[in-house]
Amino acid sequence: MNINIKDNFQKWFDINQKKTLLKFLTCGSVDDGKSTLIGRLLHDTKQIYNDQLSSLYIDSKRHGTQGDKIDLALIVDGLQSEREQGITIDVAYRYFSTYKRKFIIADTPGHKQYTRNMVTGASTCDLSILLVDATKGLSEQTYRHSFISTLLGIKYLIVAVNKMDLVDYKEEIFIKIKKNFLLFSKKLPDNINIIFIPISALIGENIVFKKKLMPWYDGYTLLNILETIKIQDHVNSKEIRFPIQYVNRPDSNFRGYSGMLVSGEIKIGQPIKILPSNINSHVSRIVTFDGDLKKATVGQAITIVLKNEIDINRGDFLVNINSSLKPSQEAILDVVWMTNNKLLIGQSYDVKLSCKKVRVYIKEILFKIDINTLIKKQSTSLSLNSIGQIKVVFNEAVFFDSYIDNRMTGSMIFIDILTNITVGAGMVKNNLKEKQIISSTNKNNFESDLHDLISKYFPHWKLSKLCV
Amino acid sequence: MFKNNTTYLRQLESESIYIMREVMADFRNPVMLYSIGKDSSVMLHLAKKSFYPGRVPFPLLHIDTGWKFKEMYMFRDYIANTSKIELIVHLNEKGKLLDLNPFQHGGSKYTDIMKTEGLKEAINKYHFDAAFGGARRDEEQSRSKERIYSFRDSYHQWDPKKQRPELWWNYNGKINKGENIRVFPLSNWTELDIWQYIFLEKIEIVPLYFAAVRPVLERDGLLIMVDDKRINIRSNEVIKNKMIRFRTLGCWPLTSAIESEATNLEDIIKETVTVKTSERTGRAIDYDQKSSMELKKRQGYF
């Protein structure tokens, strides 16, 4: 793997292209050493440039907490107010790579009042590093962050017991924390993977190097784990989900539907169903700037041309012809509330889900979760940083999957109608009251052709879509 | 970022394309800030990919300062002509009348008026509601805190504490009249990613990125290329010819060169992998004062 770029550029380039990517977040309570850990990871993998290092020395003298020594935490706290207060306010993204993998770290804040930023970070990650201070043991934030991580669909947790240097590297302390966490983790979903590692971010033990300060620990270093852990993709890959993001119509000769293939595989000639119109068609071209593709896989940004001209809009879906995806007007959602204005029954918000904006009305608050105990409590409102489950009604029928099946098509953001701020994150638990669709076999080809023609040439008639 | 079965660079590419299309669908009047540098070149290339076979559906906006390198102006006009994309060039007229220049007025004031104010003026003049910028999170500490959709109020101000939570691939583009969103589709790219992508996609860039013998002088530890006669040469300074190139390009008196033998992309990538200093060491304006970039962004810089 370790190819010297100077000796063989092409080989280096090829290997570098094929590196896998791991996105992870670091979480834990304030002062558990998240920033120090990231600083340590970057420093020991030599990702900090000399000029950054020398300004780090200067900053350490001014804002540091390590006396005359360099304070690695300062490398990540980039905002002036963060340095002044010595805390991380907002999520920041860091990039580093080794010979084996590329990494994106979502560095999230530990303060409870910034939980929403932790959720932001977790929404795109596959793994969480949960820092626990060995001198203090598990804290409210440990519970909160492990719960949020799993709620957001993260299946891999690394519990890093930090500050082992302050407890004389004692194994009993590590074991005790491990036992306590395992006891707590029974309340978390059962399909998660948990790895425990004793570290000292300050000294640099078991992060990138192993100085054998804890001979009783025979596991890998943190970097080893990050480089080698195999992340299983839980998305149901057979079902095609292609939300239409943008209709590409440069002239009358071309009509393409652009978007990201969220799940499944699309081939030329593929029979496809369009939702909500419920019309069937075939894929005639998969267009990209670099030439047409024969097939497209998950994560590719493509433009699809269909065999026949059909009226399709942003927010519509292309799915398998035999897909069971149905429109729904009600849903049960897990929700994380992110603003001071409480979520209340009867309120309306705009939501954005899979390239579509609709209005939603809060019908019921099923429960609120006590983060310390994970016990469900009755509540009439959800305040800032609360997590709960709600029942909502959309003002039109929409399409979604449950979040555990698909993080992309099962999630939505709540937008305040007045302030336009993103106020909440919603994850679909269940859909309720599927809207009845008249089966597409009930309509013959002539009807559908006629419908298309009228829609095309007499748009001002505002013909409603067929079969919805 | 999306899961993608192809390579890491293709994942970044798909993500950026997704963002550009989303902006086009969300906003009424977007624009792409075009600063002629390598990131702008990549961003423009991605825009072409996003809307193919259609043309890039928004104009490019160059905030001119009058102090770009000659080769940059040539390259800009060449790109505008060959790619047939509308190019808007905006120069802060007030600044021009004052004959504002980086030598006399200092880099900080000059940047504030010619770049930040110039950008705000142009956005107001043309009523742009979204502006793509080629900033990357690996560039600078306050950039690492930036959202992909970065909300700016009607005074163009960025408030790091009021950033909208940005979840999944779900960008909130709702704004009131007069407000705007700065969009950074290259947020997750690093300097090395940019170079590898330029190499892979054969993207054209300003020749100043390749090493050549050019006239330079050393000032305050930086290598300044002398691009025209406006240089305020000091008595103890000598203009020498040196083999240099640029890692980053801005206004010529404020952007420093590096000594380098890298005359092609392969060598540039090798150099980027082994270099010991960061890209922004070449930007004098980052060092005016502490947290310089953060302050500039708060004031409306992109």
Q: Quaternary state, please?
A: heterodimer
**CATH superfamily of the largest domain in chain B, please?**
HUPs
Largest pleated sheet of chain A: 7 strands, antiparallel
Number of discrete helical segments of chain B: 8
Share of β-strand residues of chain A = 25-35%
Global geometry of chain B: globular
Structural class by helix and strand composition of chain B: alpha/beta
> Which class best fits the helix and strand makeup of chain A?
alpha+beta
Envelope shape of chain A: globular
Helix coverage percent of residues of chain A? 10-25%
Spell the H/E element sequence of chain B: HEHEHEHHEEEHEEEEHH
Q: Mean pLDDT across all residues of chain A, rounded?
A: 87
Q: Helix content range of the residues of chain B, please? A: 25-40%
Question: If you average the pLDDT of chain B, what whole number results?
Answer: 88
Count structural domains of chain A.
Answer: 3
What's the domain count of chain B?
2
The stretches of 5 or more residues of chain B where confidence is low (pLDDT under 50) are none
Write the CATH fold name of the largest domain in chain B.
Rossmann fold
The total beta strand count of chain A reads 24
Record keyword descriptors for this entry.
heterodimer, A: 468 residues, alpha+beta, Rossmann fold, Elongation Factor Tu (Ef-tu), domain 3, seven-stranded antiparallel beta sheet, six-stranded mixed beta sheet, 9 helices, 21% helix, globular, B: 302 residues, alpha/beta, 2 domains, four-stranded antiparallel β-barrel, 8 helices, 10 strands, 35% helix, CysN_GTP-bd (chain A), ATP-binding (chain A)
Task: Give a description of the structure.
Chain A: It comes from Buchnera aphidicola. Chain A: GO terms for molecular function: ATP binding; GTP binding; GTPase activity; sulfate adenylyltransferase (ATP) activity. Chain A: This is Sulfate adenylyltransferase subunit 1. Chain A: Keywords: ATP-binding, GTP-binding, Nucleotide-binding, Nucleotidyltransferase, Transferase. Chain A: Belongs to the TRAFAC class translation factor GTPase superfamily. Classic translation factor GTPase family. CysN/NodQ subfamily. The complex is a heterodimer of chains A (468) and B (302). With 468 residues, chain A is an alpha+beta fold. In chain A, 21% of the residues lie in helices and 32% in strands. In chain A, a hairpin with a 4-residue loop joins strand 19 and strand 20 (375-377). Chain B has helices at 8-26, 38-51, 70-83, 93-97, 102-126, 191-201, 265-274, 292-299; strands at residues 30-33, 60-64, 87-91, 130-132, 149-152, 180-183, 212-219, 222-225, 240-245, 256-259. In chain B, the strands form two sheets. Chain B has a six-stranded mixed sheet, sandwiched between helices. Chain B has a four-stranded antiparallel β-barrel with strand order 7-8-10-9. In chain B, strand 2, helix 3 (70-83) and strand 3 (87-91) form a beta-alpha-beta unit. The model of chain B has no long low-confidence stretch (mean pLDDT 88).
